[in-house]
Amino acid sequence: MIKGQCLCGEIEFTADELPGMVFNCHCHRCQKSHGAAYSTQVLCRPETLQLQKGKGQLKEFMAPTAIRAFCNNCGSRLMNYSPDKESYLSVSLGVIIESSQFAPIGECYVEQKQEHTRLNCNIPHFEKLPELPAGN
């Protein structure tokens, strides 16, 4: 189980990660919403997401294929989930309280990466997010 928190501490949450499913995402939407060349995302089981604190501070931005959730107070980008809130959940690595055990297993949306960004040659590269293993 992961525990996450925004920068100001107003929002705290838990979720169960999908073992080993950590990706560096280079899509344009992640670049813009994180203000960075890419974001590292930990895929989680959507049905396990529990807001422990700060439900009133959680704000959502509806993108074409996903909802991006952030703290209304400090602006921390917390997670992405599917519009049905059942098909997909990814949590931004930077908001996970104990994140040292999460290492990316792949680089996704590599065609959209910033020109100056060097991809990790020790992990696979994907044109989009790979299919999730069955049962997840």
Concise structural overview:
The protein has 1 helix and 10 strands; from the N terminus they run βββαβββββββ. It has 136 residues and is mainly β.
**Class by SSE composition:** mainly beta
* Shape, per Cα inertia axes: globular
**Helix-strand string:** EEEHEEEEEEE
Query: Residue ranges: pLDDT <50 for 5 or more in a row?
Result: none
Describe this structure in words.
The chain is mostly beta strands and 136 residues long. The chain has one helix at residues 28-34, and strands spanning 2-5, 12-15, 17-25, 39-44, 50-53, 58-62, 67-71, 77-81, 89-92, 106-108.
Task: List strands and helices in order, with pairings.
Blueprint: E1 2-5, E2 12-15, E3 17-25, H1 28-34, E4 39-44, E5 50-53, E6 58-62, E7 67-71, E8 77-81, E9 89-92, E10 106-108
Parallel strand pairs: 3-10
Antiparallel strand pairs: 1-2, 2-5, 3-4, 4-9, 6-7, 7-8, 8-9
List keywords for this structure.
single chain, 36% strand, three-stranded antiparallel sheet, Metal Binding Protein, Guanine Nucleotide Exchange Factor, Chain A, mainly beta, 136 residues, 10 strands, seven-stranded mixed sheet
